[in-house]
Specification:
Length: 141
């Protein structure tokens, strides 16, 4: 079950990059030093709201549509972040499987993405004990 305003709630298994050190206008070369680790993320998308404007933001940022975690893997626990497999299960059935999609130098790709994002938004340290939220959405693991 997705938001009441939508008939097209969809899922996308993603790898989240977790920021562990605050900063602003961090260079691309230094961005990875701000990453604490990685986690599974369900990028719950509201497909019908992605078409309301020329921007996808309304369909990607609906309240409580992104399932996160429940664990974080620190950067030193992954030998090659570019060689990870992501599987999405909906009510126990695998509905999506892919590699992390980072070819070549994965750390350079993450540095570039974080460096570009940090031009327009601040890095904030992730909360250590975020408040858990209940959801009536289908179970996605």
């Amino acid at each position: 079950m997705g938001p009441l305003e939508s008939e097209r709630f969809d899922y996308e298994g993603e790898m989240a990059v977790i920021i562990g050190k605050a900063g602003r206008r961090v260079s691309r070369e230094a961005a990875l030093a701000h990453v604490a680790g990685y986690a599974c993320y369900n990028d719950g998308s509201i497909r019908d709201w992605q078409r309301h404007t020329s921007q996808f933001a309304p369909g990607k940022n609906f309240m409580a549509t992104g399932g996160f975690g429940p664990w974080m893997v620190t950067t030193d626990e992954i030998a090659d972040v570019g060689k990870q497999t992501i599987a999405t299960r909906l009510n126990g059935v695998e509905v999506q499987a892919a590699s992390s999609g980072l070819t070549g130098d994965a750390e350079s790709t993450i540095n570039t993405c974080c460096g570009l994002m940090n031009v327009s938004t601040d890095f904030h340290q992730s909360e250590r004990n975020p408040t858990p939220r209940m959801s009536s959405s289908p179970l996605v693991t």
